[in-house]
Amino acid sequence: MAFRGLETSADEASIRHWCQRAVERFDIELVNHFELEEQLVFPLLPGAMAARLAAEHRELERLAATVRREPARDPLEAFLTLLRAHIRLEENEFFQLVQSTAPAGQLESIGPEISRRAVRVALT
Using CA of residue 46, residue 52, residue 58, residue 64, what is the dihedral sign? Predict the structure, then answer.
């Protein structure tokens, strides 16, 4: 799968740059995001899909560590490919299922907790 930044610049310096950016974004945005999902959202709908999403979190963590340690195109593309698929599964299936099956009171109760614990980032 091709990614915009990698399509136009495939030299070693560019690959290192994109690896560094991916790891920075992972550290800033995804570590906290995964924690909140696993502690607050996944328990609303335990089962195979929540277990799969948690397993994908572990795999994304492993791939991010690989990209951090050994910046190269293949592990970066594996990380980005899994991340895209993971986001689609969460947004198109899991979160829709949670919203349609979890009791409204539970959904309402986790909102303020997510807001309180979420890391807010201003990107420039």
Answer: negative
pLDDT digits (tens, 9 = 90+) for 27-68: 999 999 999 999 999 999 999 999 999 999 999 999 999 999
- Spatial separation of the C-alpha atoms in residues 109 and 43, rounded to whole Å: 13
Listed by start position, the domains of the chain span 9-117
Q: Provide the 10 A C-beta neighbour count for residue 24.
A: 11
Both structure tokens of 73: 């195109």
d(CA 100, CA 93): 11
Neighbours of 87 (CB within 10 A): 10
pLDDT confidence band for 17 (50 / 70 / 90): very high
